[in-house]
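Amino acid chain:
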Amino acid sequence: MMIAFTADISAQSMEFVRGHRVTGKAYLVGNGLHSFVWDSERTRALCLTSALYNGLILTNWFMFMSILFPRPDLKAAFGKLALTQSLLQPFVYVPFFFLAPESCKVNFCSVVGDLCVWVPPRPI
């Protein structure tokens, strides 16, 4: 959760700087990040999404993978990777992420469009 927290604050500050460079506002005048306003709701939603996914889904998936592939060799590692990339990521992670609290605020058509773009190449 700390990684998600830190990553979102970093992303928000980068978005702020990028937006102000494009519009030529306060950032270029020398105010830097002084006028940056942190969106705590976005960070909270991302942290909760991360905690739910990592705590409930990913932990159980790793335990299931260790039952399917009990040996710690290269063949088992590639088998785990193949199953994760072809099953878990496109059919569990992507829908979970887009249906999570923060993603529910976006337009449904854009979510379907994103799913059509990101899910098919996952097994590749």
About this structure: The CA atoms of residues 4 and 46 lie 7 Å apart.
